[in-house]
Amino acid sequence: MTPQVLRSETDERVEDSQLSAESSATESHAAEQGDEHSENGLPISLLDVARIVLVGMAAVAVWLRIWEPLPRASVIGIIATLVGGYPIFKEAISALLARRMTMELSMTIALVAALAIGEYVTVLVIVFFVLVAEVLEELTVRRGRRAIGDLLDLLPQTVHLRRGADIAEVSASAVRLGDAVMVKPGGRVPVDGIVTSGHSFVDQATITGESLPVEKVAGALVYAGTVNQSGRLEVRVTGLGRDTAFGRIIQAVERASSARAPIQKTADRLAGYLVYFALTSAAFTFIVTRDVRATISVVIVAGACGIAAGTPLAILGAIGRAARLGAIIKGGIHLETLWATSVVVLDKTGTLTFGRPNVTAVRALDGLSDEDVLAAAAIAERPSEHPLGKAILKAAADRALTVQEPETFEYTPGKGIRCTAAGEEILVGSRTLLAERGIVVEATRDAASDGGTIVYVARAGRLIGTIEIADTLRPEAREAIRALRDLGLRTVLLTGDAERVASAVGRHLGVDEIHSELLPEAKVEHVRRLLAGGACVAMVGDGINDAPALMEASVGVAMGSGTDVARESASILLLGNDLLKLVATLHIARRCRRIIGANFAGTLIVDGVGVGLAAFGLLNPLLAAFIHVASELTFILNSARLLPGARAGRKV
């Protein structure tokens, strides 16, 4: 699927997502004007502008009493109110038919009552304020939705396609599976595919989160949305549009933005309760005071639109901001769970470490050099398929050592390798292997200080040195663990590795609890015990063995380069393997909670104080309308601070 089609479907899905019951009037109005907006590119429709201008002019005319010899003020006021307030009245009727109590319904009651007592200026000013507020609200909400859709701008709109001996620049819509696409240096890869020719380095941080460019040669995979940095590549297309890794990321964000979190339902319920509170207070005010103006002011001042629209906007903004940072949250419910997290459970291999052994130290004996020891071990390991052997060969290649083929080769499982080279016997393996050949190992250790493995190397009947091999820690792991603890979170390491390895890694990183030698079902049991103790658990992993625990935890977090099973089982996907992205996402989730909490508290305070002042006749309908609209916009703009591109503000 082409970028154009992909964008079209994205806009449609996002436009169709209902943010809340209380903001549905704005949603419907936006849907009516959606086509015009997309065609002319205007931020608001001309009909919106016409309504605002009409109501504003009518309010001025009635206020200045300039209607003569035009029709009376009542005619101007009623006509302008009906035309300008159409979106409000339409939603009020829908709510009435659906037996729902909404702010539009209570506002309609107030407007009709104000018209009945001849408060034409007040009615027109109220409608004017509400229309302006709805336009500003819609602009803010559209910005939040557009922030997600803007991710699609990473895909090129034109593609250089090879057709026979010719290369033509065509629209992305013309590309088909199996086509040969040329990607120039500095250009973005438009499709998922396999390199058929060329050599380059590609920055694929947008997909995998890798900090360094990845070398690409014939046979290598490339992903849509990544950047070709150096050489020219020819790519055979294997995925287009939504069938690319990038497209699936967009779909995940879309689903997340349209899914309703429990806090949104709470906001809707509270909005309904506040409407009942306003109407009840208005009825009580009228019974006690018999003051119609005060009664109308009570209905007008109480507003819950700020929390009804601000809550989903905050969640939408948080999901979009996290996506920009490289964390895909698969739904608002997972965001809400994340901000309540109290314990972070971590897998080791592939999560805290790279998941592949590397030579961490070489110690030579008898005056030999490290290169002598490494070269001897590499000769023995050259025919081997053992992961430790591959680590030794890699270390030898990194040092540009010449490694010859051994003359004989014998591997004993659990012990090591015996071979001959240049007529000399070489032993590479455990102490047991050397002891069987009569070589005494003295003053050495059985384990590396970092929890890795010691490999002993002997040549011509004597020990010449040792090689330490370990799974290398990710450079950001220690900082991430420290940041999690600074957030007040307890960290728990669950791994299938040996106790000494797990302890070394856990102590080095500063993990609070360490549990080792665990099978997948044992990891699940540990997570269940934490949940039973009242903890909200976030589980971070990358392998197939982590999938059950990811599903069991309150929220599962999968590393982007992990297995497909882990990624599908998780609630949050970290593009790449940077745990600091999890820390950043936790900050975003907590900030979202703080903003929503502030909106809730602010709405209750404004409504409570406003209703009290209006009931005692201290607020006229005009001032009540101003307070209503001003508070609504304040809470919406407060939520808009989470939108991508807005200032991040102080961390929680």
SS strand fraction: 15-25%
> What's the story with the biggest beta sheet?
7 strands, mixed
| Fraction in helix | 40-55%
Query: How far apart are the first and last residues' alpha carbons, in Å?
Result: 41 Å
- Rg for CA atoms: 33 Å
Count helical runs: 23
Structural classification: alpha+beta
Number of domain units: 4
- Sum up the overall morphology in one term: elongated
The residue-averaged pLDDT reads 78
Low-confidence stretches: 1-42, 648-652
E-strand count:
22
- Oligomeric state, counting identical vs distinct chains: single chain
What is the spatial order of strands in the main beta sheet? 10-22-21-20-11-18-19
Give structural notes.
With 652 residues, the protein is an alpha+beta fold. It folds into four domains: 3-150 and 252-321 and 590-640, no CATH class; 176-239, Calcium-transporting ATPase, cytoplasmic transduction domain A, CATH 2.70.150; 339-352 and 474-575, Rossmann fold, CATH 3.40.50.1000; 356-472, Calcium-transporting ATPase, cytoplasmic domain N. 51% of the residues lie in helices and 18% in strands. It contains 23 helices and 22 strands. It has a seven-stranded mixed sheet, with helices on both faces. It has a six-stranded antiparallel sheet with strand order 2-1-3-9-4-7, with no helix packed on it. Helix 20 (547-552) links the parallel strand 20 (537-541) and strand 21. Helix 2 packs across helix 5 (86-97).
Describe what is shown at a glance.
The protein has 652 residues and is of the alpha+beta class. The chain is built from 23 helices and 22 strands.
